[in-house]
Design goal:
- The protein has about 140 residues and is mostly helical.
- It has helices at about 1-10, 15-25, 30-40, 45-55, 65-70, 80-95, 100-110, 115-125, 130-135.
- Helix 2 packs antiparallel against helix 3.
- The chain is globular.
């Protein structure tokens, strides 16, 4: 399977290699996703990198380290911060994991946008209800 995967990556390009690797459940698909993510991220294509992270198998790129990378990048002129590009893409496609839910909830609550967080909870877009409840009920959380 890995031979076929490398052949596809060389002849068809990285996008098609990713699609075929996932569709056929080929061994090593995770490595293709990580490489593609790192390439796009390194080029400042944060929205595209976020799409790769969102679609990577087994959530391999949906980690606190990925969130940290997006947090550390400066916003490009005229664009949303990389982190604000990352979360909406995840919210479009799936439920956020614990780390993502907590990292998104903090700034939302600091901005006093509690209704937005409540909407995501009702829609099942954010998880870890207990931890979010603790954040929501914290003394410094806006009401």
């Amino acid at each position: 399977k890995q031979w076929y995967q490398r052949r596809v990556a060389i002849t068809a390009g990285p996008e098609l290699a990713l699609k075929i690797s996932v569709r056929c459940n080929l061994a090593g698909a995770e490595e293709l996703f990580v490489r593609r993510f790192n390439m796009l991220f390194g080029q400042g294509q944060y929205s595209e990198a976020a799409k790769v992270a969102a679609s990577a198998p087994k959530g391999i790129l949906r980690t606190p380290q990925t969130i940290q990378r997006f947090q550390q990048c400066p916003a490009q002129p005229g664009q949303a911060s990389p982190l604000l590009q990352y979360f909406p893409i995840l919210l479009e496609t799936s439920q956020l994991n614990k780390a993502e839910s907590l990292e998104l909830a903090r700034p939302v609550l600091q901005q006093g946008r509690n209704q937005l967080l409540e909407k995501w909870l009702v829609e099942g877009k954010v998880g870890c209800r207990e931890e979010l409840g603790s954040l929501y009920n914290a003394p410094d959380a806006p009401l």
